[in-house]
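Sorry, any thoughts here?
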Amino acid sequence: MRRHLALILGAALVLSPLEVVTQEKQIVDVKELAGTWRGWVTREQGHEPVTMIVSADGSYRAMTADTASTEGKFYLQDGKLRYRSSRTIGTASLSEARGPSVLTMVPEKFVYGAGRAEYERVE
C-alpha cells in the first residue's frame, strides 16, 4: 500500500506543472544591488507599491505611492545579505529565475507598519 501511494505521489509531482524554481544568488559585494527596483511592501493596510533606488555603496531610499519613505543600507555579515533602515533591520536575498531578479527583504520584527518587501530590478 505504501509503495502504491509513493508511486502515485511521485507521478503527480512529475506530471503536474511546477512553478519556476528560483536560485538564490550569493552576493559578494552590495554594489551588485545598485539600480532601481519596483515591487510591493507589506504594511498594516495591506500590500502597497514601492520603488527603491540603491546606490553602489549599498545605501537605498524606498518610497511608496502615498509618499512614505525609508532610507537604509545593505551590508554583508558573515556572508549573508542584511539591511538596516530608518524603520527596521532584517535579512535580504536576491533570487534569479528565468525572469527578472527578485530582491526580498524580511524584517526581524513587524514594526512601524513595515513588513516583508519584494522588488524586481527595473534598471
Observations:
- The chain has one helix and nine strands.
- The mean pLDDT is 81.
- The first helix runs from residue 2 to 15.
